[in-house]
Amino acid sequence: MNPALHPVASAPRSTDSSIGGLLLESGKITPESAERVLRMQKELGIRFGEAAQRLGLVTEQDIQQALARQFDYPYLQQGQGKYTELLVAAYQPFSAQVEALRAVRSQLMLRWFARERKSLVIAGVSSGDGASMFAANLAVVFSQLGERTLLVDANLRRPRQHQVFDLQGRQGLSDALAGRADQGVIEKIEPFMSLSVLGAGTLPPNPQELLSRPVFADLNRELEAQYDIVLYDGAAFGDGSDSMALAARIGGVLLVLHRHHTRIRDVNATVAMLRRNGTEVVGTIMVDFP
């Protein structure tokens, strides 16, 4: 029996959700400068954020980030946090690339998750197709929707999510499947209140066998009970049968193709193989993530 897995508790959120309160909490202004802002706000009859900008205390980007927090749509400024800049959903939430991610999210909500599904495998056809970065960004946009989202690094050969999200824990999915994980194995990503990540953990000598064990189905049921969306970042299908075993358990796969890398004949062979095994190909996505 696998141990119960629980996300790490996050710090309590400030109860002051005004722009001034959020700017104070984030350290953008001091209590003394806030008084100057309030005086100008009263004298000119303008908004707090506009007054703070006129005084040169904050930037437009600071105001936009505070507004995002007001509406529970967290994102990061460039250079903030420990994450790779390829996490565009975190650093460039209003870009065309992230608009495309939100469109994919909407399609998945309609075509897969609306059918009482909670889990989905995301995997590339061949190694280097950019599936891990796509999965990471998709997890961020699902969390920005307010869905309790868990990203599981199920690539037990070449895991990447521990680097993307700067995870400190050494244990993860493999350790949970082997019955050696403690309760802190799931890490909450603090800037995104609804996002948690379960890293790959110790690289095992038998990844396909681990993912094929009945304990994986038990673990997935437990995770689905705790989260609204569970995304599995799987190994590329060209790297072996790991993701085929994973897909068989979950039932659905979103295939990731790289614009300058993936070969059509490999896509056709992978889709045919998945369908023979009774796995639904929910869709295919072409990306240019490295």
Notes on the protein architecture:
With 290 residues, this protein is an alpha/beta fold. 42% of the residues lie in helices and 14% in strands. The chain has helices at 19-25, 31-44, 48-54, 60-70, 88-91, 96-111, 131-144, 161-164, 173-177, 207-212, 214-226, 242-250, 264-276, and strands at residues 119-124, 149-154, 186-188, 195-198, 229-234, 252-258, 280-287. It has a seven-stranded mixed beta sheet with strand order 3-4-2-5-1-6-7, sandwiched between helices. A hairpin with a 6-residue loop joins strand 3 and strand 4 (195-198). Helix 2 crosses helix 3 (48-54) and helix 6 (96-111) crosses helix 7 (131-144). It is elongated. The protein starts with 18 loop residues before the first helix and ends with a strand. The relative contact order is 0.16.
Number of strands: 7
Rg (CA only) = 21 Å
Termini separation comes to 38 Å
Range of strand content = 5-15%
Mean of the pLDDT scores?
85
Helix and strand run: HHHHHHEHEHHEEHHEHEHE
What kind of sheet is the major sheet?
A: 7 strands, mixed
Q: Please estimate the helix content.
A: 40-55%
Structural classification: alpha/beta
Unreliable stretches (pLDDT < 50, length at least 5) are 1-15
Q: Which strand order does the major sheet show?
A: 3-4-2-5-1-6-7
Shape: elongated
> How many helix segments?
13
Features:
single chain; about 290 residues; alpha/beta; seven-stranded mixed beta sheet; 13 helices; 7 strands; about 40% helix; elongated
Secondary structure layout:
Blueprint: H1 19-25, H2 31-44, H3 48-54, H4 60-70, H5 88-91, H6 96-111, E1 119-124, H7 131-144, E2 149-154, H8 161-164, H9 173-177, E3 186-188, E4 195-198, H10 207-212, H11 214-226, E5 229-234, H12 242-250, E6 252-258, H13 264-276, E7 280-287
Parallel strand pairs: 1-5, 1-6, 2-4, 2-5, 6-7
Antiparallel strand pairs: 3-4
Helix pairs in contact: 2-3, 6-7
